[in-house]
Amino acid sequence: MHKARQLKAAGLIWKPRLGDRFAIPDRDLDDEMFVLSNMTIQVHDRPEGRIIGFNGTTEWALDDVEIEETIWLPREDQLRELLGGTFRSLRRDGEGYRVELDLLGEPLSFPGESADEAYAAALLHLLAAAGVREAA
Fold it and tell me: Whole-prediction pTM value?
């Protein structure tokens, strides 16, 4: 969840879709992972903002939570999609993985213990680069 927190802090915006994974930190649920589905966990638009509703979870004292209180846990395919045209390859690198990007003609490489971590490291770099360009 560490990389997911960093992505959120870097400005990654979550547009919830069915099958998305997320966590709810700071509510004694840090070790739980939730998945949006048609039947049990759905996104609802309310006048006060978007919320995630938990349907049929009578064993929990949790009816809904504001999206801002959650942390999206993007899957490998979602991270790769967010890299867009900069993505060149994912390869095994010893015990871990390495994502290769091409950013404005410059080859870049990002290691990670898992494929997800390597993708997240690359995306964090892109988000930071976009922030620098916007501020300039």
Answer: 0.78
